[in-house]
Automatic annotation (TrEMBL):
It is found in: Cytoplasm. Pathway: Cofactor biosynthesis; (R)-pantothenate biosynthesis; (R)-pantothenate from (R)-pantoate and beta-alanine: step 1/1. Its main location: cytoplasm. It is an enzyme of class 6 (ligase). The active site is at residue 43. It comes from the Bacteria. PANTHER family: CYTIDYLATE KINASE/PANTOATE-BETA-ALANINE LIGASE, PANTOATE--BETA-ALANINE LIGASE. NCBIfam families: panC (TIGR00018). The lineage of its organism: Bacteria, Bacillati, Actinomycetota, Actinomycetes, Mycobacteriales. This is Pantothenate synthetase. Keywords: ATP-binding, Cytoplasm, Ligase, Nucleotide-binding, Pantothenate biosynthesis. Beta-alanine binds at residue 68. It comes from Corynebacterium vitaeruminis DSM 20294. Homodimer.
Amino acid sequence: MNETSPQVLTTVAEVRSALADASGNGARPVVLVPTMGALHEGHLSLVKRAQEVPGAVVVVSIFVNPLQFAAGEDLDAYPRTFDADVEKLAGVGADFVFAPTPTVMYPAGPRTVIHPGPVATILEGKTRPTHFAGVLTVVNKLFNLTKCTHAVFGEKDYQQLLVIRQMVEDNNMDLEIIGAPIVREDSGLARSSRNTYLSEAERELATTLSKALAAGAAEHTAEEVLAAARAVLDAAPAIELEYLELLGADLGERVVGENRLLVAARVGATRLIDNCAVTLSA
């Protein structure tokens, strides 16, 4: 493992030159871990997963992408901890950090935007209708700038993972998308940069989401799954539920076998999401 700090790259020229040199012009795989910073153990687990690709050159992007925030969302408040992030990445041996400014990423403004199609109109897309267009636009740019052969995304943002896989498949992109498991705190709370917004009381209340998912996942029919999860959520009226949905693993129709239970809720002023796999027997 590399014990030194990762090399920080901030411009298009720097990232292209450094990654071409490090990869031997494609002789070694380049594995991208896109983030918005405020790194926690969940992000670091993605870096470790990236390092499992044989011969990997690992580049972590840190960019708070304004395109994926709608008016009134937390763009300005989103935590920015760059120096601490680089220190954490040194600890796990990341090779490079790509930390562009909005001007570097969008020198002419966001002229060309990728629209994600019907899968982005449900769940997160229902209340954040411009979110996934912003995500896909920046991820596509990061893929092009880094010329990555692989990219790692966490299952915590499950719909995002599927939308990105769809973009790669539909556009015949020659790279592999790796999904990595959700990392949780000891309490069961899914690790998220937005957890820093929570008070101690809210943090305790937020564990209701993972408890609801666990209760649902223990059942075997769709009706039982949803009833068990909803009962846990109903017992915590201070939580403002946005959605609780049981869908197929592809976010389509439920099937016998593996499905996905997804929840979004507000705990105080903080919006949190979580999900888990659920096996239906009928």
